[in-house]
Specification:
Elements: E1 3-8, H1 16-23, E2 29-36, E3 42-50, H2 53-63, E4 67-68, E5 71-72, E6 74-78, E7 88-89, E8 95-98, H3 101-105, E9 113-115
Length: 116
């Protein structure tokens, strides 16, 4: 099973190699997939794959909000397993993953949350 972390709010110069280095602090990185727009420009987000759920959870907890090239990166579960492992539904019906449980659960979803 794939255990992906969605990584967003990335500055466009962030590379696969930089994300691999950062996320390797938590555990062994299986792969990094940076997404691009149709024209080939960086899209500012990607996915980091780990081999197990505990490492994936640790990566989200420890690295969400870390400054990378001057921008706070956002981390959340990526892929199907995230739907069972922490996604919430806001009053408007949208799905989000709280990056900070206390701030998201006790208030309306804000910038602290990733919208699906």
């Amino acid at each position: 099973m794939k255990w992906d972390v969605f990584v967003g709010n990335l500055e466009y110069s962030v590379s696969d190699e930089l994300l691999t280095t950062i996320f390797s602090e938590v555990g062994r990185v299986v792969s990094v997939r940076m997404k691009t727009e149709a024209a080939g420009r960086p899209a500012g987000y990607g996915f980091v794959e780990f081999s197990d759920a505990p490492t994936c959870r640790a990566a989200i907890a420890l690295l969400d909000g870390r400054l990378v090239n001057g921008r706070p990166m956002k981390g959340a579960w990526g892929g199907r397993q995230g739907r069972c492992a922490g996604w919430k539904t806001c009053p408007r019906g949208a799905r989000y993953f709280p990056s900070s449980a206390s701030s998201c659960i006790n208030s309306a979803p804000t910038a602290h949350c990733f919208w699906q």
